[in-house]
What does this fold into?
Amino acid sequence: MSTNLTTARTIIGIALQFGHDKGFKPLTVVVLDAGGNVVAAEREDGSSNKRFEIAHGKAFGAISIGIGSRALMARAEQQPYFIAAAGAAIGGALVPVPGGVLIQDGGLTIGAVGVSGDTSDNDEAAAVAGIEAVGLTANTG
It folds into this structure.
């Protein structure tokens, strides 16, 4: 099982609305399937030009290593060489700061969401809001 386009679009819409309602800076949201493929992505007007790569790196790092990017940040602080090696092994697309959240359904990881544009904590909150709004579980750790 993996994240489908309809679900991905809904997650993106809710995440962007959440950010808008909270007064966040313009966001970019990327939704990946269980294999790390981009299902959908959207960049708000005013979101800076490399936010897609950052949001993708948050989500791709999470799905590749199997833990949310908040947990990857903690791991980077404890084991920087591991994170550097893991980043190299997955082609450099690993951004170990909050905002990359695993999408789970009944304990099974079916994808990941990456958000970038505001503070990392706010990015993560928008991702969680989108995932939970569709009845799935957001795993940040």
Observations:
- The longest strand covers residues 108-116.
- The beta strands are 28-33, 38-43, 100-105, 108-116, 137-139.
- The longest helix spans residues 5-22.
- The two ends are 21 Å apart (CA to CA).
